[in-house]
């Protein structure tokens, strides 16, 4: 029986291994992590991450051919194929701080593999890693090999949160990069035969190592760039009276462009987009490609600009101060159908409003109060370190409260900010919300989920990203 072990039981490792176990009943799959609470959660009824469909997949396989364990060394030494899916945070100090990936966790995983292995192994990069990581890992393993042969493969994940299980069942492509040597090609074939049990052969692409590593960064950079492009247009639409939804619909009808990722919003978030682009910028700079680095920097700049613009719009609309005013925050996750808050625009928006002394009441159907407190008290990039290494700071803000439903959150509020496009926000009883708010009552829609006309008829002053401005807002210029 082929044995697979995955080091790292996070957003990538857990779901990916669960689907491999489901689709390949003859393969034994172990997911290992040094975090005891995380493994306990994977073995319980309350999984550590929320992802539609994940629960069913785990329950079908757990205890049969899918195991979650803290016995890292035993499972690593027994495995034929080892996936490494550990954190690769952005460095916060030293060479490349703020851009380069921190490979500390990767390196210690590689050293541990070298220590405990007694048989030849295929080691698969599953984390997002900078180009040439495979080479570094290869060096660590071969210099500590004790006669054991290692083949390094790059198998980047292209999952979208909220649809990860669907993506794994039916991927656009599976990418496997390896050495173009006889042993390298054999290793590629071994991994290919795992995926081929449910993925059509023509969707499994094989490349050299560097192409696979760079394809992951490039894919995320292109997607983020599309969001920044439509968000840049949204600012122009507001200035001219155009409607960004109509513009993006017209643009998306061009088959060369297509309609996906053209929704204007308060900005992109998630664990990969910013991190991967920063990584790309760093690699470009290291290779003397400063113009290319500058191009990609602009994608992040526009994203930050969009979040600032939103905060400024809120403050300027409400007589240029939100001090002491209650503002309801509807949605904290970076997008709907996930509880993930990594790099969510909500963090910067909330911090911006708190900086002006607002009182916030936050409601999100999937994000816990603890998580929101932690996010609002953490420095940039600290979120990507394992939880036990994250700095513990005092409770984020006494000015933040948490509501169990959107109606409680909006009671007595001066304004409502919609920051995640949860479906339930489209069907809220805004008549009821209007009644219980302070007047004038404001709605700031950062995701274009509400019917602007309807809300204005109820009596709200509405700001919706990229839509023609409310007459009220035209008289309240935004301070830069």
TrEMBL record:
Q: Could you cite one Gene Ontology molecular function of this protein?
A: NAD binding
- GO cellular component terms listed in the entry, alphabetical order: nucleus
Q: Where does NAD(+) bind?
A: 8-13, 33, 38, 86-90, 127-128, 161, 272-275, 342
EC number from the UniProt entry: 1.1.1.22
State the Gene3D superfamilies in the record. Cytochrome c1, transmembrane anchor, C-terminal (1.20.5.100), NAD(P)-binding Rossmann-like Domain (3.40.50.720)
Pathway membership of this protein? Nucleotide-sugar biosynthesis; UDP-alpha-D-glucuronate biosynthesis; UDP-alpha-D-glucuronate from UDP-alpha-D-glucose: step 1/1
* One GO BP: glycosaminoglycan biosynthetic process
Query: Where along the chain is the active site annotated?
Result: 272 (nucleophile)
Recorded coiled-coil stretches: none
One Pfam family linked to the record: UDPG_MGDP_dh_N
Which key words tag this protein in UniProt?
A: NAD, Oxidoreductase
| InterPro entries hit by this protein | 6-PGluconate_DH-like_C_sf, NAD(P)-bd_dom_sf, UDP-Glc/GDP-Man, UDP-Glc/GDP-Man_DH_C, UDP-Glc/GDP-Man_DH_C_sf, UDP-Glc/GDP-Man_DH_dimer, UDP-Glc/GDP-Man_DH_N, UDPglc_DH_euk
Q: Which residues form the UDP-glucose/GDP-mannose dehydrogenase C-terminal domain?
A: 328-452
Catalysis performed (reactions): UDP-alpha-D-glucose + 2 NAD(+) + H2O = UDP-alpha-D-glucuronate + 2 NADH + 3 H(+)
Family listed: Belongs to the UDP-glucose/GDP-mannose dehydrogenase family.
This chain belongs to the protein called UDP-glucose 6-dehydrogenase
Which species is listed as the source? Answer: Cucumis melo var. makuwa
Question: Which classification does the entry list for the species?
Answer: Eukaryota, Viridiplantae, Streptophyta, Embryophyta, Tracheophyta
């Amino acid at each position: 029986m082929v044995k697979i072990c995955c080091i790292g039981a996070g957003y990538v490792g857990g779901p990916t291994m669960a689907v491999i176990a489901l689709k390949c009943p003859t393969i034994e799959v172990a997911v290992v992590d040094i975090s005891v609470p995380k493994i306990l959660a994977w073995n319980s009824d309350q999984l550590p991450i929320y992802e539609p469909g994940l629960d069913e997949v785990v329950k079908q396989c757990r205890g049969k051919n899918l195991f979650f364990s803290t016995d890292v060394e035993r499972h690593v030494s027994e495995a034929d194929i080892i996936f490494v899916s550990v954190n690769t945070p952005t460095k916060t100090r030293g060479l490349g701080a703020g851009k380069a990936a921190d490979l500390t966790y990767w390196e210690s995983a590689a050293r541990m593999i070298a220590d405990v292995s007694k048989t030849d192994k295929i080691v698969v990069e599953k984390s997002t890693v900078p180009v040439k990581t495979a080479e570094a890992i290869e060096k660590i393993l071969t210099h500590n090999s004790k006669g054991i042969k290692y083949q390094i493969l790059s198998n980047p994940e292209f999952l979208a949160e909220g649809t990860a299980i669907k993506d794994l069942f039916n991927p656009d492509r599976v990418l496997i990069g390896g050495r173009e040597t006889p042993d390298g090609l054999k290793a590629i074939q071994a991994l290919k035969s795992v995926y081929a049990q449910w993925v059509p052969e023509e969707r499994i692409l094989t490349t050299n190592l560097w192409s696979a590593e760079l394809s992951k960064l490039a894919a995320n950079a292109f997607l983020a760039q599309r969001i920044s492009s439509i968000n840049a247009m949204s600012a122009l639409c507001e200035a001219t009276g155009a409607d960004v939804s109509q513009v993006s619909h017209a643009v998306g009808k061009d088959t060369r462009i297509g309609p996906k990722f053209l929704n204007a919003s308060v900005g992109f978030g998630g664990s990969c987009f910013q991190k991967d682009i920063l990584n790309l910028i760093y690699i470009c700079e290291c290779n003397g490609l400063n113009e290319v680095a500058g191009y990609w920097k602009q994608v992040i700049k526009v994203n930050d600009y969009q979040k600032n613009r939103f905060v400024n719009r809120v403050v300027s609309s409400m007589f240029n101060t939100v001090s002491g005013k209650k503002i309801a925050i509807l949605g904290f996750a970076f997008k709907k159908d996930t509880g993930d808050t990594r790099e969510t625009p909500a963090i910067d928006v909330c911090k911006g409003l708190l900086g002006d002394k607002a009182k916030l009441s936050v409601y999100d159907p999937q994000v816990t109060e603890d998580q929101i407190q932690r996010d609002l008290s953490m420095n940039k990039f600290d979120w990507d370190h394992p939880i036990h290494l994250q700095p513990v700071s005092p409770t984020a803000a006494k000015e933040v409260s948490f509501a169990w439903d959107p109606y409680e959150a909006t009671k007595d509020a001066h304004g409502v900010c919609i920051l995640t496009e949860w479906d339930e926000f489209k069907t809220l009883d805004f008549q009821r919300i209007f009644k219980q708010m302070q007047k004038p009552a404001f709605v700031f829609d950062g995701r274009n989920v509400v019917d602007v006309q309807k809300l204005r008829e109820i009596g709200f002053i509405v700001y919706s990203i990229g839509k023609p401005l409310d007459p009220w807002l035209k008289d309240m210029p935004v301070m830069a």
